[in-house]
UniProtKB/TrEMBL annotation:
Source domain of life: Eukaryota
NCBIfam families, A to Z: synapt_SV2
GO CC annotations, alphabetized: neuron projection; synaptic vesicle membrane
Family of the protein in this entry: Belongs to the major facilitator superfamily.
Protein's membrane topology: Multi-pass membrane protein
Gene3D superfamilies attached to this UniProt entry: E3 ubiquitin-protein ligase SopA (2.160.20.80), MFS general substrate transporter like domains (1.20.1250.20)
Organism this protein belongs to: Gasterosteus aculeatus aculeatus (three-spined stickleback)
Subcellular locations according to the entry: Cytoplasmic vesicle, Secretory vesicle, Synaptic vesicle membrane
Transmembrane segments: 139-166, 178-195, 207-227, 233-253, 265-288, 308-327, 377-399, 411-431, 556-580, 586-605, 646-668, 674-692
Gene Ontology BP, a term: chemical synaptic transmission
Protein name per Swiss-Prot or TrEMBL: Synaptic vesicle glycoprotein 2Ba
Principal cellular location given in the protein's record: membrane
Length: 703
């Protein structure tokens, strides 16, 4: 094989082969190859020299020979003849290779620099927050976000308080009544999943404004909904909005706190959820039983006191929305989004606000931020959470948010959240239902039974309460301006009787005969008469539909139970706030859950309403510390770009556990109390033991 150097080889070919001769059959199977360094090799696969390198039989030429076209031109200005056929110049090839190597080295240096800067960002941010201090700005944000958390607490009690009145006002059946509570929790679960993830893409402040606005609009509309369908839809939309408040609030506030302040002040923030329960219980107690506080707009729109209660419950959300509008976005989120100038201005505002309040306005904010030019936020996809809400898929999502070494801890965290929510919300439903059942049993034990009585030409001008009348006869009797509550007439005869302005509650006529009787302006309609025979009976101006009786449907004991249960968490909140940074999150969570499991056994000794209320307060007081610790560790364990998404998924798991527990625990009311207590005990023990395996984040810098 013979090799020809660059220009010489090409010049020889151009001189030896006129145009088209390279493809001539006489010179077939000739191939040209460019080797490294820009050299050319010519070979012939067949004919000629039997496979040997092709050699042209041309006379030897002088090394300095030149073509006519280039003769007399300078060597430096000579045109590279390979350009005619698109063959790159050897110098160009070398230059391209050199540029590629330089670009690769530059990218490697940039990647290493970016990795170093990403590792240093948490430490830099922690240093900046320490320089800004903890003062007036954090306290202002504390109260604003506390009101948002309070709004979530209020919404958790609204449905339970208005349901006894709403079911009478809108004729809600028992099955539909259960659907309302279920859909509200489902809406909160979906809201936590969606808004938690969106807060990592759109920002904490913006999403919190959207959440509060949605809650305010649809809660306000639910006050005026006259049909159950619209009321259900508005409460669902309201729950979807307020359901995202908890993930956003804790994520938002955490990113304005330095490491040694996080545990304590996040625990103090949890107290606002308790204040929401107190506010809802107190206002319900003072407003709902007063029927006269309602008003009417026209003949169709009736605004009763339970609707006014919903309006009053909007005040915390409205105040929070106004406050959040004047608060800045989280600077940590802005840094993660490569919006460095905005983050700088907000950090300077925090610094100046705190130090001016401390009497040191001369302190200058001089901390510099060194970050990469662009930090990408992990994308959040809403549809997978909306279309696949199974527990296994949600657990897979939360574990995938963790680094590989923390995936086991992510699974542990899911288990602890589920166990605590299952027991807490399950017993939260069981306590008031158990009290109602005890009241019902006590009421039933006092029922009066009248057998084969005959009453003729008598005027009933007094209320009939908790009575059973069997095989009675009522001839020429008058029932006027009275209330009949929990009364049952069985196999009785009413002849020539007159009913006027009668209000009834839980009153029925079964297998009775009614002759020549008039019902005028009463609420005794067809559903009240079961298998009855009517002969010449007249109904004039009947009160069709459902009607409220606030004195009977709203027992103040239920309001008192909720009020005391909310107040009972105050000692647990104070203790957890004071010791969260001293003994650590893990001991707080594990100790509180195991102590709460011991309290559940005391429920076996509850044989009266007073005992149930007492053990309820004890359980709430011991379990609240676990909630505080769990919320603190959840925001500390995950990086800033995934913190809202992770907390939203965990809070969604909490709502899922609440739905399951509410259905299971309520099914055993009046049957046995051993099963609910045993389930709560097992869940708390398992969750408490698993919590001890979680990593301690007390001295962890936010990643």
């Amino acid at each position: 094989m013979h090799k020809y150097d660059g220009d010489k080889a090409k010049s020889l070919l151009l001189r030896s082969h006129p145009a088209g001769t390279m493809d001539d059959p006489y010179h077939n199977n000739v191939s040209q190859q460019v080797t490294e360094g820009g050299e050319y090799t010519y070979t012939q696969d067949g004919g000629g020299q039997d496979g040997y390198p092709y050699q042209a039989d041309y006379p030897a030429q002088d090394e300095d020979a030149r073509s006519d076209a280039t003769e007399g031109a300078d060597e430096d200005e000579q045109m590279y003849e390979g350009e005619y056929q698109g063959v790159p110049h050897p110098d160009e090839i070398k230059e391209a290779r050199r540029a590629a190597r330089m670009e690769a080295r530059r990218k490697a240096r940039q990647a290493a620099q970016q990795e170093d800067e990403e590792e240093n960002l948490p430490e830099q941010y922690e240093t900046i927050m320490e320089d800004c201090g903890h003062g007036r700005f954090q306290w202002m944000l504390f109260f604003v976000l506390g009101l948002a958390l309070m709004a979530d607490g209020v919404d958790g009690f609204v449905v339970g308080f208005v349901l006894p009145s709403a079911e009478k006002d809108m004729c809600i059946s028992n099955s539909d009544k259960g659907l309302l509570g279920l859909l509200v929790y489902v809406a909160m679960m979906v809201g936590a999943l969606v808004w938690g993830g969106l807060s990592d893409k759109m920002g904490r402040r913006k999403c919190l404004i959207y959440v509060l606005t949605i809650d305010l609009i649809f809660s306000f509309l639910s006050c005026f909904a006259q049909s159950y369908g619209f009321f259900l839809f508005f409460r669902f939309c309201s729950g979807f909005g307020i359901g995202g408040s908890i993930p956003i609030v804790y994520t938002y506030y955490t990113e304005f706190l330095q490491m040694d302040k996080r545990g304590e002040h996040l625990s103090w923030l949890c107290m606002f959820w308790m204040l929401g329960g107190l506010y809802a219980s107190f206002t319900a107690w003072g407003i709902i039983p007063h029927y006269g506080w309602g008003f009417a707009i026209g003949s169709e729109l009736q605004i009763h006191s339970w609707r006014l209660f919903i309006l009053v419950c909007l005040f915390p959300a409205l105040a929070a929305l106004v406050g959040v509008v004047f608060m800045p976005e989280s600077p940590r989120f802005l840094l993660e989004s490569a919006r460095h100038d905005e983050a700088w201005m907000i950090l300077r505002r925090v610094h100046d606000t705190n130090w001016k309040a401390k009497g040191e306005p001369e302190r200058v904010f001089t901390v510099s931020i060194t970050t990469t030019t662009e930090l990408k936020i992990v994308a959040f996809v809403v549809l997978p959470y909306l279309t696949h809400l199974s527990l296994l898929q949600v657990m897979a999502n939360i574990m995938s948010l963790s680094a590989p070494e923390f995936r086991l801890q992510g699974l542990f965290l899911v288990i602890v959240w589920f166990c605590l929510a299952f027991s807490y919300h399950g017993l939260g439903v069981w306590f008031p239902d158990m009290i109602k059942y005890m009241q019902y049993e006590e009421y039933e034990s006092k029922v009066k039974v009248f057998h084969r009585e005959r009453v003729e030409r008598f005027h009933f001008n007094f209320s009939l309460v908790n009575q059973i009348h069997r095989e009675g006869e009522y001839i020429h009797d008058k029932f006027a301006e009275i209330e009949i509550k929990s009364v049952k007439f069985e196999d009785s005869l009413f002849e020539n009787c007159y009913f006027e302005d009668v209000r009834s509650t839980n009153t029925f006529f079964e297998n009775c005969t009614i002759k020549n009787t008039v019902f005028y302006n009463t609420d005794l309609w067809q559903e009240k008469f079961k298998d009855c025979r009517m002969e010449n009976t007249t109904f004039l101006h009947p009160k069709k539909g459902c009607h409220l009786n606030f004195q009977e449907e709203n027992d103040i004991v239920i309001y008192m139970v909720s009020f005391l249960g909310s107040l009972a968490v105050l000692p647990g909140n104070i203790i957890s706030a004071l010791f969260m940074d001293k003994i650590g999150r893990i001991r707080i969570i594990g100790g509180s859950m195991l102590a709460s499991s011991a309290c559940t056994f005391l429920l076996l000794l509850s044989f009266s309403q007073g005992a149930v209320i007492c053990w309820q307060c004890l359980f709430y007081g011991t379990s609240v510390a676990a909630w505080n610790g769990l919320e603190v560790i959840s925001v500390e364990l995950y990086p800033s770009s995934k913190r809202g998404t992770a907390f939203g998924i965990l809070n969604g798991i909490c709502k899922l556990a609440a739905i399951l527990a509410s259905s299971i625990f309520a099914a055993f009311i009046g049957i046995t109390k051993i099963v609910p207590i045993f389930l709560a005990f097992i869940a708390l023990v398992c969750g408490g033991l698993v919590a001890l395996k979680l990593p301690e984040t007390r001295e962890k810098i936010l990643s």
